[in-house]
Amino acid sequence: MELYRLTASELSRMMQKKEVSSAEITRSVFDRIAQKEPEIEAYITLDEEGALKKAAEVDEKRAKGESLPPLAGIPVGIKDNICLKGLPATCASKMLQNFVPPYNATVIEKLNAQDCVYTGKLNMDEFAMGSSTETSFFKKTKNPFDTARVPGGSSGGSAASVAAGEAIVSLGSDTGGSIRQPASFCGVVGLKPTYGSVSRFGLVAFASSLDQIGPFGRSVEDVSMLYSAICGKDPHDTTTVRREYPRFEDNLQADVKGLRIGIPEAYFGKGVSEEVRAKVMETARQYEKMGASLVPVTLPDPDYGLAAYYIIACAEASSNLARFDGVKYGYRTQNFTNLEEMYENTRSQGFGDEVKRRIMLGTYVLSSGYYDAYYKKAKFTQKLMQGMFQEAFQKADLILCPTAPDTAFKFGENSDDQVKMYMNDILTVTVNITGLPALSFPCGFDGKGLPVGCQLIGDKFSEQQLLNTAYAYEKAVGGFDLSKTLD
Ligand code: GLN
Q1: Alpha carbon of 111 to those of 29, 102, 155, 318, 365: distances in Å?
Q2: pTM above 0.90, yes or no
Q3: Where is the active site (predicted)?
Q4: Active-site residues: which are they?
């Protein structure tokens, strides 16, 4: 058995029993990268030397008899908008092509405390704006199930690397679906945590009130392990919440008896492909057979969610991205005669089209005269949506629906039509707008052999319940099938 195929929990147990070393696992993952990367292009930066050095250190600690945390020695890939000291954090943008952060994000400090090994930095859409990695300045990551298709985005590299065996687990970020949609397209598990449960310190901001970092894995247990490692109150991020966070993997229970699963009709409606609808409904029926009950719930119209998201996200992005001016970070134009021109040329040359589009949109909705018409209305809609979810949670313990309207699309299929591309986020964005946790897990394949994602949405801080429910399905079907991408 090739080690790169195994899950973090399996490898962790094997290392504890001294059946394998972190060096052997890391070697296996880098051999796999050498084999698959020319085709998949999941990484922007690889750090083989750093990874092997760290693996050797972990093995040495273990040999000395030190007791190590569960993720010690596990190769983890990191999305390129998360600062990892000493490696470039490009955000897949020309603007930050040469930016090497002098500090670690809090999530990296937390993974350091676990003695993780870092494979490198993963490709994404530029500044996390997109659903396919097509807006990356550097490369397009391919879907390991079909390389003519996108891996989803913006965390496309994070999902594809885990599906293809080029990382054991990975971190991504989710502002409007960027963990769940690529997880769905690549047949892996992805968790978007409750807003405020994971520190954003050291995550390059897109839309600060929506952004959350979260884990990808090939099993629910792996996602639980990684989430346990990164969550918690952080003095560097005042939006993080102080509370008891359990070790989620230790409390996993494959039991859904008595669980009330909410089915929102509007999320199975127009725009959702027949095959996706059928597969996800089949999953709901399976839960019913396992002892759960299905209850209809009314959620905010996804169309309003999408409109509110693109106003709020762009407004915040326009403000957050003002810092990239050629003075403080990254790229500076060569051709300018005065300060004004320097700003203008730097930003014109440094940002790609999608980022510029969003900065303009965001500046527009915040400008006087339009603020009331757009931004204020979007914030008002956000409040209403939060209320509707709270009502739904009176009737149901959690909500089940598709993650994305369809399975992975082909490169170029949506890139000329922004609205079509934005429609891909229609089932994921309301979760960010309302700050709720949600998880995507694979629930089978469509007729083309592409994975279908099932989304579970819970009330704030109900991650354990989401993980347990997905775990129950995983156990019932005997594990998620990645034989096609790991072979
Ligand atoms: N695809 C969505 C967008 O383009 C979500 C991005 C994200 O979650 N980072 O905004």
Answers
A1: 18, 17, 19, 31, 38
A2: yes
A3: 79 (charge relay system), 154 (charge relay system), 178 (acyl-ester intermediate)
A4: 79, 154, 178
